[in-house]
Amino acid sequence: MSLPMREHIQIRETVAAEMPRDLLLQADPSTARVNACLHNARCFVGEIDADIVGVYLLQATAPEVWELMNISVHAAFQMQGVGSAMLRHAIATAGAAGAIRLEVGTGSFGYQLGFYQRHGFRVTAIAQDFFLTHYDEPIHEDGIQLKDMLRLTLELR
Ligand SMILES: CC(C)(COP(=O)(O)OP(=O)(O)OC[C@H]1O[C@@H](n2cnc3c(N)ncnc32)[C@H](O)[C@@H]1OP(=O)(O)O)[C@@H](O)C(=O)NCCC(=O)NCCS
Fold first, then answer.
1. I need a surface site. Which of 21, 56, 102, 131 has the fewest CB within 10 A?
2. Residue 49 has what pLDDT?
């Protein structure tokens, strides 16, 4: 019997130049924001059979506080545990780097909210109008315009 796909995923740190833009832009449609994040963040890829199927970025934003950004899984590999494997890897990596708190920003609705909260993240703040003021184009998900960003936090200690 073959193992579930998540058992095959290898996650490794890499350089910004190797990060697939299509995956980064799937998590954040702004090229300018993706470029800015890439510039300062630690970059990680998840691979299955040497093909990159997922990405995430990690950045220290304050002493002992890290932010997870642009976690994204190729559409053909979603819903198979790859995102959860990468999220667990990000949590472990931030903890190993000395973080006491890991934060992530996400839209105020959508399955992503459940994805993060299943791993223990709690809603800690609302950035009202974030998607209206930080993006040139309107962003829609499930036919609803994204307006507000929720900040979610995982306490690591
Ligand atoms: C969010 C994302 C990284 C999750 O990756 P994934 O590999 O699909 O995640 P998993 O397979 O580990 O799924 C985790 C849970 O989320 C749920 N989920 C994932 N994608 C979903 C979807 N499209 N619709 C509904 N639920 C979904 C799964 O049901 C699963 O729940 P379970 O553990 O109870 O089965 C991925 O869907 C993605 O790349 N989305 C587009 C980019 C994005 O929105 N990034 C986040 C920006 S804040």
1. 21
2. 94
pTM above 0.85, yes or no: yes
Residue from 33, 73, 121, 153 whose mutation best tests the ligand 1 pocket (most atoms within 8 A of CB): 73
Q: Is 80 in the pocket of ligand 1 (CB under 6 A)?
A: yes
Q: Amino acid identity, residue 148?
A: D
For 52-78, write each residue's pLDDT tens digit.
999 999 999 999 999 999 999 999 999
CATH numbers and ranges of domains, the chain = 5-155 (3.40.630.30)
Give the residue whose CA is nearest to atom 7 of ligand 1: 83
Q: Biggest alpha carbon distance in the chain?
A: 51
